[in-house]
TrEMBL record:
InterPro entries: Formate_THF_ligase (IPR000559), P-loop_NTPase (IPR027417). This is Formate--tetrahydrofolate ligase-like. GO terms for biological process: one-carbon metabolic process. GO terms for molecular function: ATP binding; formate-tetrahydrofolate ligase activity. Pfam families: FTHFS. SUPFAM superfamilies: P-loop containing nucleoside triphosphate hydrolases. Keywords: ATP-binding, Ligase, Nucleotide-binding, One-carbon metabolism. Gene3D superfamilies: Formyltetrahydrofolate synthetase, domain 3.
Amino acid sequence: MYTRQGFSSLPICMAKTQYSFSHIPSEKGAPVGFVLPVRDVRASIGAGFIYPLVGTMSTMPGLPTRPCFFEIDVDTTTGRVLGLS
């Protein structure tokens, strides 16, 4: 799918447990003889990479191109915070 969309040249970043090369956190280090089950493949096009998800990883949402704090201000006359709602 990503190749058809023109993203085949993006590098792949593996999203897996930090404790093991496998998908099983209890198998510490570099176990051998395992099959790595990829449960999903996602793309972070803005960041420039594709990432397979392995095991029970959860991911964080990406950040917007313009951070929300640009829309927050304080009215110096009233002391009221603007832009939070």
